[in-house]
Amino acid sequence: MKLMKYCLSPNKLAWLRQELGENADGLIAVMDAAGSAYLAQAAQSDASVAIDALPKLIGPELKLLWFKQKLALITRLDDIELSKLAPFELEGARVVVVQPNELTTVLQSLSKQRVIGFDTETRASFERGVQHPLSLIQIATHDTCYLFQHALLAERLGLLKPVLEDENILKVGVGLRSDGQALTREWGINVTPRLDLNWVLAQLGAGKEMGTRQLVATLLQKRIDKPKKVTLSNWQQVPLTSTQIVYAALDALAAQHCFSELIDKLKPFYLASLEANTQLLTQNLTVRLASYFEQANG
């Protein structure tokens, strides 16, 4: 754990580095190690505590474990740490670039889902005042990502409206506000209900938006690369390149997988808080996720 990253704002950490001088990194590492050792001792070897045993814990011991879980989830990795992680890959997941004659069948399949990963791509503009329309919508289940390209589907893209507005299907992603605004502006689609994973981490204490790279790193222990060359590529071209297809699919799949992992990590503390009649998760987070905790518990 990196307590200094969590407990100090970037400005205060920068000030501390300046005050400590050339030995700053070493001294901060020593302080981190001392803090981690203290927590480990206070928790009385909590690593041996099974997840199923959490509801039986009470008082300070439970709160300490909750603090450590939050700390693990919201601590940002630096570039060196990220580079050491294995890449987040498709790993058997299917990617389907939806053709017009497949659209009805795909939408029927998606209508049966309860949670879907969601993202969009838009062709970058390099001219002031020029904004291109939304080019691609990515929707992912746990093992399949569907790519809906405007250049292929044209006005049929509006047929996604029932799925994207279905109150029984949660759309999860990162930075969903701009995606939702584009769909409302261009297609009259109000994406709801939706859950921005940045918001979840903020509820756990993250000081600033984590972003997809940090979320994938902390939750999945994987590295997702976001090369500018692909991000700024032409998403209207037909066909999309294999690199574009994989890039787009991984974003939506990552959102779906990160949500599942968050539920798995937070559920024991939700159940423990009910058992101990104490508040661990924020009220807002509890309200938004309670039904998914209960489903996962069932």
UniProtKB/TrEMBL annotation:
<dbReference type="GO" id="GO:0008408">
    <property type="term" value="F:3'-5' exonuclease activity"/>
</dbReference>
<dbReference type="InterPro" id="IPR036397">
    <property type="entry name" value="RNaseH_sf"/>
</dbReference>
<dbReference type="GO" id="GO:0046872">
    <property type="term" value="F:metal ion binding"/>
</dbReference>
<dbReference type="Pfam" id="PF01612">
    <property type="entry name" value="DNA_pol_A_exo1"/>
</dbReference>
<feature type="domain" description="3'-5' exonuclease">
    <location>
        <begin position="94"/>
        <end position="267"/>
    </location>
</feature>
<keyword id="KW-0269">Exonuclease</keyword>
<keyword id="KW-0479">Metal-binding</keyword>
<dbReference type="GO" id="GO:0006139">
    <property type="term" value="P:nucleobase-containing compound metabolic process"/>
</dbReference>
<dbReference type="InterPro" id="IPR051132">
    <property type="entry name" value="3-5_Exonuclease_domain"/>
</dbReference>
<keyword id="KW-0540">Nuclease</keyword>
<protein>
    <recommendedName>
        <fullName>3'-5' exonuclease</fullName>
    </recommendedName>
</protein>
<dbReference type="InterPro" id="IPR002562">
    <property type="entry name" value="3'-5'_exonuclease_dom"/>
</dbReference>
<dbReference type="InterPro" id="IPR012337">
    <property type="entry name" value="RNaseH-like_sf"/>
</dbReference>
<dbReference type="GO" id="GO:0003676">
    <property type="term" value="F:nucleic acid binding"/>
</dbReference>
<keyword id="KW-0460">Magnesium</keyword>
<keyword id="KW-0378">Hydrolase</keyword>
